[in-house]
Amino acid sequence: MNMNQPAIVVGVSDSEASAAALRWxxxxxxxRHVTLRVVRSWDAEFAAPYAPAGGxxxxxxxxxxxxxxxxxxxxxVLGSVTPDGVAAExxxxxxxxxxxxxxxxxxxxxxxxxxxxxxxxxTIGRSIGPVVRACLSRAQCPVVVVWAGQPAPxxxxxxxxxRRELVGAA
Length: 170
Description:
By secondary structure, the chain is α/β, with parallel strands linked by helices. It has helices at residues 16-32, 59-78, 95-103, 117-122, 124-127, 130-138; strands at residues 7-12, 35-42, 86-92, 108-113, 143-147, 164-167.
């Protein structure tokens, strides 16, 4: 897939917020007639502080788990056959960095968040996760944050003025 053509990049994980972001991004890419790049990051160096020391996965197991999670999410949201114009990518590294890197040259970066919109509007720096916070401050393209658990409004919200915008859509 040509990385120089117009594209929407959506960062995903195993969360419901990621599923909402992928649905929104797929719809937007279809409306704009642009490529959708679905990016799943995995970090071989990351170990959750609460995880048992002996239960840590090897880098190969982590990559396989990320690949399976990405495939499962895409299948559940997009169907068993990946639509034309959609590309999936596993990106090794910290999600904040890989997504900021992928935002270079993208038309839009889409992320999901479980934080409720009301709380996010009041305390944006504390209510959203570190990946969303980093991308909102460092992405090289406009960013849309899709809130999980909210029904898609009709008509769907439009991007408002400004480089980065939080919208309440799923």
